[in-house]
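Record 1 of the preview.
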Amino acid sequence: MKKIATVLFILLLIFTIHIQMHAQESMSLGKYSSMKIEKVGKLKGTLNQGMSIREMSGGVSIVLLSQEPNTPNMPIKADKMTFEWEEGRNSPVLIRMEGKVYLEHPEGKLTAEKAVWDFKKEIVEFTGNPMLDSPKAQGLKGSKIVMDFKNNTIDIENLQADMIPLQVEGGGSEGGVETGLPLLTESDVSDWNGFIAELKKQGQDNEMTPGKYLLSKFDGDARSQFLSAPNDLILKRKQDLIKQINRLLRKPDFYNKEAWAKITLPETAKELLQKGTLTAEEQVRLNRLLLQCAFPDVIKPL
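->
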């Protein structure tokens, strides 16, 4: 009889949670509107105006559910979860998770010692050795990771990473080098540590610089990943950086007058800039000259 009562209690609880999270759309997290309880060692709640969960402990496993068929379910686990409520609201405003926190997002798996799920802001903040693993980046660590469901973003403070790909999708041959075009090769850089450091320095400059302009042209999140990744990691994956640069070397918008305003250009580069329409080889040659002028101490001349 006791087991039957427990089962009925859990079923009632799941049903109540489902109704509560549907009742107020602004309190849901993005596309997730209800949850299923898979496991809980001990549960505390109140029966004041319906069932309200106060605490789940002893190993908790829940799954966020979505009504949208293209949105996968999101498993969440923790040793303990506590729920905070506000008067007049029929869904929690905060869920605090402690101990072996695990969240499986469609973009990757997050682990931490603590997490706070804020329903009002629609964010989850992970602290205590948080780490994100995804197909695009492995071992992303920081002092804090914030997942924003409303804006579909992830922010990481004090980033460290085991692997971040910088390469262009479907990237071609090693370094992106093609026969007949004076693209950048690994041996063209005389000091890779110096080049990475200078590119980062220019990328963070308040004024427009060649490095800042070029980084703004990087694919997707590659700019922020490059600026936040440790230099030794970038050094190990310098072929990815070469591919990004060689993609830009082919483009007619590689040059920006403001960015190169303080750079002395050779006559060959000036002539090509004045020529207007260029062949593919001339375009790459011009851009390659511009690149070596922007980083004269670390990139060898053509």
